[in-house]
Amino acid sequence: HDPEDSHSLGSNTVYAIMEDHNGTLWVGTDGGGLNRFEGIGEDGQGRFNRYTHDPDDPHSLGSDFASSIYEDRSGTLWIGAVGGGLNRFDPQTEKFTRYQHDPEDLESLSHNFVLPIYEDRSGGLWVGTYGGGLNRFDHETETFTRYQHSPEDPHSLSGNTVVDILEDQFGTLWIATFDGGLNRYHPESDSFTSYH
Hints:
Elements: E1 14-19, E2 25-29, E3 34-40, E4 46-51, E5 66-71, E6 77-81, E7 85-90, E8 95-99, E9 114-119, E10 125-129, E11 134-138, E12 143-147, E13 162-167, E14 173-177, E15 182-186, E16 191-195
């Protein structure tokens, strides 16, 4: 990052990197938003195009802390933002659609601090949060199903800070939590088995 150069990396604190299907490198930073690598300039320095949060533009990135970047099988780019929720990027318009927590809406994202994003083999998009558990996004209705820890339910998600999501070769979804161990998702019962 060079504060005098608007085409330098947005911040020296990098949290996520991802190469899309076109070979474009995307970089998520803390304080510098989402950065698209444009190549090496004549000065030998890397050139970046920055996408940042604008409080006056609802189609800008939800916050300048891009914590995760994920490209789904359709080529759609999803960005998790700390405090800014889940963001879908449209490369044609270079605008974002934000999905954020609404305390009045139980089908909204459970928390605006988004960590991992993962698409399973059936096309389901899963979103892990810091403190808000796990969310499954419904593309048709653009709503979320929430999975959160309940002390009374041993088959609920074992922790509300989700740090990683993976589907194995058998189609089993595994969810790693910060403080609740490992979880195996059972789609037939919409429940979890936890491993401590």
